[in-house]
Amino acid sequence: MTAAAARRDIAPAGLLVALGAAACAAFLLSLAVGPSGFGFHVAGDAGALILREIRLPRAILGALVGGALGLSGAALQGYLRNPLAEPSIVGVSGGSALGAVLAIHLGLSGVFAFALPAGGLAGAAVAMLLVMALAGSHGGPVTLILAGLAVSSFATALISLALNLSQNPFATVEMVFWLMGSLADRSLTQVWLAAPLMVAGMALLLLVGRALDALTLGEDAARSLGLDLKRTRLTVVAGTALSVGAATAVTGIIGFVGLIVPHALRPLVGHRPGLLLPASLLGGATMLLVADVALRVVQPWVDLRIGVLTALLGAPFFVWLVLKTRAELAP
Amino acid sequence: MRRRSFASIGLMAAVLVAALPAIAGDTPARPQRIVSLDLCTDQLLVELVPRTRIAAVTHLAADATVSAIPDKALGITVTHGAAEDVLRFDPDLVLAGPFGVPATVDLLRRLGKRVVVVPQPQDLEGVRSVVQVVASAVGAEAEGAAMIADFDHRLARLAAMRQQQALKPGAIVYQVGGVVAGPGSLADAAIAAAGFRNLAREYYTTRGGQVPLEMLLAHPPDLLVLSSAPDEYRTALADNLRHPAVALVRRRRASVELPWRLWLCGTPHIMEAVEQLAAARVRIQARSP
Amino acid sequence: MRIAARGLCASLKAREVLSDVDVGAEAGEITAIIGPNGAGKTTLLKVLAGLIAPHAGTASLAGRPMAEWRPQALARALAYLPQERTVHWALTARAVVALGRLPHQPMGAGESAADMRAIDAALAAMDVAHLAARPVLDMSGGERARVLVARALAQEPRALLADEPAAGLDPAHQLALFRHFTVLAAEGRTVMVALHDLSLAARFCHRIVLMHAGRAVAAGTPADVLTVEHLARVYGIKAHYAVLDGVPVVVPLDLLPGVLP
Known about the structure:
Distance between the termini of chain A: 43 Å
CATH architecture of the largest domain in chain B: 3-Layer(aba) Sandwich
Largest sheet of chain A: none
Number of helices of chain B: 13
Helix content of chain B: 40-55%
Oligomer: heterotrimer
Shape of chain A: globular
CATH architecture of chain A: Orthogonal Bundle
Shape of chain B: globular
CATH topology of chain A: ABC transporter involved in vitamin B12 uptake, BtuC
CATH class of chain A: Mainly Alpha
Order of helices and strands of chain B: HEHEHHEHEHHEEHEHEHEHEHH
Largest sheet of chain B: 4 strands, parallel
Helix content of chain A: over 70%
């Protein structure tokens, strides 16, 4: 028995190491792939510059944004005890995009650059609190999805309104920019702007593992195990707002990563929501980096956006999940 | 290719003009309450006819970022382009562009209004024919002819300049959102008229569209044309113009910022852009051994 | 650890559920809380577990008011087993039982040898060791209930508050469960259970508190509380209290007229 228990303890460490190695490999692959040629020695004097100014920010953002989305998806699912929760589905991504759009079009980001991720953060926090208030702490999957849909649609409408009011000649194109995110042609400046917030948010989310484990037994049991659920709620909201808000402010909405990754990894961590957090962080980073590499290999030009790809993968997956949980979702 | 598109636009213009029974060449038929629904027809209208005959133009005509003649359009009544709004001016001629709402044009026509849809030129010859279409529609043939004569004169001078320079440097028009002007666009024609070859053909042979910044670094153009300044627009799409890689290319190679107002529309103002490009070419030529 | 409460008043959604309740549970004893549906048993347990703050009166553990306990320290001293048996994810039985060790583990620490011993002992005590690797969501209701009791046992609390722990268990496992509670009491722990099975209360519990409409209407030994008069007044039943082979038994015989439609 003790030997078996010990074996179970080693397995998670092994899994995290394997996922970490996969993320590192995907990061290096992302650095090596680009329209001007494969590898780390791109021809010409521009080679080093291409690596540093174009591919490095893209790879860093891919890892951080993928990690943030995977982790926040796992945290939301664990906290809400709802397998359909995910930043873009519950409206957090939409709120972030709205916050970022307002920061740009009210001119705040022109005054101080930090206003952009801050706007995303604020929008995400508002959306998240709104969804939680609408769905209630005991809302089932359906209530949560409906609340998310409402918040998401409202955010989309307000983005559209803000873009139209700003007399922006690119309003319709910019709508696509926000709703279908992309990692292309981002600069290190943008990375440094968003990375600290994303890292802080992820660190917060990693702290709630114990609470999420305990919440498996319901709120009363979790509290009786000595966990402060108010603090957990605050940490989940702040962590998601920081990580998803800052990510979306720089890349636009990238959907479904937070849905697919936790679901794929859950059986591997024995369904433990706490252990799922670091696994989804590494898995999310790997998935987004690989998807971004695939995008550049299949179609080296910018036109196909990664948000389109994740939605293409994620929407059928979502349908499958709905079918799977249909008994539970039935009124 | 260029000749053919000129012919087709000329043909289109001829059809359009023939469809207008009122302008048979008589002066009394000159429209007196003209409404324009398109930024490009706004600009031609304002430059071709006196204000007294203009009932309304779009709000963009007075917007200095997109209009070449904002001062001249200042104070003219503005229409927002919906059919009902247009009708309140009781126009005797409506000028529309190809990108307007087709339903509005149909509705106005059904209500018995004369609507002339002016095409968007794809090259410099197209600009000339558009001037002709608008000038004859509004009954300003003489003014139109003068405008075209000036245009032709400047074009001929550039052609002469071009012949003295054997080198054909490469240029790329890099815009908001990473979009480059591709073959068949007005910007492409302007680059060619100034004596450059459009590198979009080498980056991306099929059409204009988004090009990865990486290509800009890997194959930097002799001239980087930014169609607007990085800080001109508050939009997330313009982030690519602020990218350090763009700044790098600008430091290493020649670059010009051409305001959008000069070539957004196919009006003779495009010549100002072509002349600036030609001047940049002279500078590049002078620098190279 | 003695659990004591004086003058407890508590409300749920503006409805008073407990009014002026005095209860006590001694270390080394099993105390049962009985009463009809809606009498306030669950609310009383939650107040005593520190999960609901009373709006009047005080509840204390080991002489210290609940409000003064730090959550982590309280969780090491007291385990609460809720009535609902929801498990939200397909954790294995062992993983569920291991959750009981959370209060004993510092942040980020893995399972210590003591943790593993407690988990294995709890699994064995509830006869679920053979199910350790099975996901709880695949189990029968009774099996899952035993796993959840094992979770509370793994917490190794000085005081255990269990809400309807016997519901849904077969007779053999009901007896085994209460035998184990007896062992816990003999070790000097405080055990408090909310119960519907009056025979179990009569047989295993040292003291019984009878709740009715938010008040504790009687308290004392089983013989004192499970009287024909009390059962008639509180439950509206005619019941028979007997001792068979030295085992007390309460048998409900009939509804009294006018109690239920």
